[in-house]
Amino acid sequence: MKAMLLAAGLGTRMRPLTDSLPKPLLPLGGRALMDHALDRLEAAGVTEVVVNGHWQSERIEAYLAGRGRGPRTVFVPESALLDTGGSVRDALGLLGEEPFFVLNGDAFWLDGPTPALERLRQMFDPARHDATLLVVRSAQVAAAVGAGDFAVDPWGVPRRPKEMEIVPYVYSGIQIAAPALFADAPEGAFSMNRLWDRAIAAGRLNAVVHDGLWFHLSTPQDLADAEFSLQARAVGEGR
Questions:
Q1: What local confidence, expressed as pLDDT, does residue 37 receive?
Q2: pTM listed for this prediction
Q3: At residue 238, does pLDDT exceed 80?
Q4: Is the previous residue joined to 113 through a cis bond, with omega within 30 degrees of 0?
Q5: Long-range contacts of 221-225 (CB under 8 A, 24+ apart)
Q6: From CA 2, how far away is CA 100, in angstroms rounded?
């Protein structure tokens, strides 16, 4: 399988840390955020990852070139931001005709008993689904995540919140998608939300609830809190 790592964001809410460093290269647990995601993909059997970049893209490209280990990466610079949906649509020629993972460049999580990427793979059926999302219970996220993104029924079928409704799940920044999700997608920049809503209406989107830890990394304080949690966890495990 292949994957795409979305690394073209400006990281505005993470300033001043991102004034001089793109968000996917910020350190957490002694390594760049991007490294954690790439290692998870490699462990899941992914051999090639398309990585896009815009803000300080040359630093991302150089970092990937010097990583010195798998998976193989193909860097795609974006002269103009295409948002999540537009970036993947423009990379479809590199991603091929089979389903692929899509990860946000700042996605950081700890697996439960079964790796999250394997759970997504098990629950995705291209005959029934255009995408499968990994979602997280808002109540288990230390940072502020707003009113939530989805409600999910016992069969894994998601829906959007109704007016004035608070729903219990947020998107983790991790999904598996089929090229069919992008059929007739618009040109230019657009959000993946547009395609998800279309898939929900067609009954072709499902969701898996994460059974491990997940960290919302939006602000410098979020990053500091995640670092503290990791250090406390290591101490508790005797490392």
A1: 94
A2: 0.92
A3: no
A4: no
A5: 222/143, 223/14, 223/17, 223/26, 223/28, 225/142, 225/143
A6: 5
Find, among 126, 115, 101, 121, the residue nearest to 49 by Cα: 101
Q: What is the pLDDT of residues 167-223, one digit of tens each?
A: 999 999 999 999 999 999 999 999 999 999 999 999 999 999 999 999 888 899 888
Distances (CA, A) of 230 to 61, 118, 142, 214, 215: 28, 23, 13, 11, 10
Contacts of 92 (CB under 8 A, 6+ apart): 179, 182
Residue 235 has pLDDT above 60, yes or no: no
Task: Provide mean pLDDT across the span 159-167.
Answer: 91
Where does the pLDDT of residue 164 fall: very low under 50, low under 70, confident under 90, or very high at 90 and above?
A: confident
Complete domains list, the chain, with CATH? 2-236 (3.90.550.10)
Residues belonging to the chain: 239
Half-sphere exposure of 59 (CA within 13 A, CB side): 16
Residue 54 in tokens: 């815009």
Q: Is the pLDDT reported for residue 149 higher than 80?
A: yes
Q: What angle do CA 111, 85, 91 make, to 5 degrees?
A: 90
158 preceded by cis ω (within 30°)? no
Q: Identity (one letter) of the amino acid at 94?
A: L
